[in-house]
Structures are given as structure tokens and as C-alpha cells.
Amino acid sequence: MTLDGKTAVVTGGARGIGRACCLALVRAGASVAVWDLDGEGAEATAAAIAARGGRARAYAGDAASRADIDRILAAVRADLGPVLMLVNNAAVADFRPFLAVTDEVLEQICRVNLMGPFMLTRQVIPDMVQAGWGRVISMSSASAQQGAKHLSHYAAAKGGIMAMTRTLAMEFADQGVTVNSISPSFIRTPMAAAANPELEAAAAATPMKRAGAPEEIAAMCVFLASEDAAYITGQTLGVNGGLVLS
């Protein structure tokens, strides 16, 4: 599943699922732009890649800010070339009852989890269309598939990711671009642990009775980016230990 000569952008690449995706894509041959609000964390991921002989650059910025999107994409193209793979991974989670979701919280959740991926995808797809080859992979959530108490705003935004995936897949399927989403459940990441202190207990109630590892999401990411997945588009692939069955 070689990705030699292709450049990937991974948002939220400093830690957790994003970091695992960066490392896995580089192992498959890609050059990776590690993008995160945490510039030091992004640098650490890029340094870990370089120590393994891979090619990566770190970029600090907000993946939900149009100004940062334009600035960083210009730098990525200058440093690494056209963007042919995009992993929309940057996210923010928030647990609270529906009636406690303020307008400000709702706007933040939707901006980071939906508007950012929408704007970023819109800005990179022209590279893919011009090349006649591209991969857009976005992280959705099992909470959007089955619902989750106290996650109405987060689940709604992640449901938007699934809808965006389907519609973009239809629009660009005949131009060599596939668009898919990965739907994790309980994954051991810093964000998940901070948002849900009961993560391990909740994961123990799933069919596999354990939480997943970021590397298990990254493995699906690399598969969807590969030629082996060239006939897969518009899909939401659950990597969830059996929590959501289809």
C-alpha cells in the first residue's frame, strides 16, 4: 500500500489519533504535513517521523480558521508539494446536557468539528482534481450513528461530517477523488480521556469490552488512502469494537 511521492495533510496531528495517522502514513511512503494548534506538539510528531527516516513538516495553526487554512496550505504546497491526501482529524469534544448547550458552545463545536473540515476540504480538493487522484478522510463518530447522552452538539456536527462525505463522494467520484469517513467509538486519546473520565468503563460495556488504540484508527486511514481502497467512496467505516453494527 505504497503512498510514495504523495503529500498528506493531517489536522490535529500532535497527539492521539492524528499523531498515529501521521506516523502510519509516513510508514506507507507519504510525506506528511503535521498540523495542530499545539505547535510544539506538531514539532514533536514531525521530529519522531524524521527520527524514523520519514519526511514531515510541522505547522501551527487553527484548522477552522480560513486565514490559517490559506496560510498553512500555501506553506505546505511550497514545502511538500500539492496536497493529495487530507485527514480531517482535528476536533473538540464537550459533554453537557442539551439544555445547557449555549450558543457559544454550539458555535465552537460546529466550527471546529464541521466548518473547519468543510473549508479545508474545499481548499485542497482542487489539488486532487488537477492530479486526477485524491483521498479525503474525515473522522466522524459513533455518537452520530447511534446518539449519545450529553453529546447532542458534538454528534450533530459529526453527523454533518457523514453527510458531507456522502455528497462530496458523489460529486468527485469520476475525477479520481475518493471521500470517506472513519467512525471511532471509545479510543484511548488525551481528548477522549479529558472529555469522558468514564471512558474505560464505557468501553468495557461494548462487545469487545475494551477501548481502541489510535493505531487501530490509523490503520484504517492508511487503507482508505491506498490504491487497495480505490473503489471505496462515500462510506463511513466503523472502527468501534462492535459498538455500532451495520
Short synopsis of the structure:
The chain is an alpha/beta fold. The chain contains nine helices and seven strands; from the N terminus they run E-H-E-H-E-H-E-H-E-H-H-E-H-H-H-E.
What does this protein look like?
This protein starts with 6 loop residues before the first strand and ends in a 7-residue tail after the last strand. It has a 7-stranded parallel β-sheet with strand order 3-2-1-4-5-6-7, sandwiched between helices. The chain is built from 9 helices and 7 strands. It has a single domain, classed as Rossmann fold (3-Layer(aba) Sandwich). It has helices spanning 16-27, 39-51, 66-80, 103-131, 142-146, 152-172, 190-195, 199-204, 214-225; strands at 7-11, 31-36, 56-60, 83-88, 134-139, 177-184, 236-239. With 246 residues, it is α/β, with parallel strands linked by helices. Strand 2, helix 2 and strand 3 form a beta-alpha-beta unit.
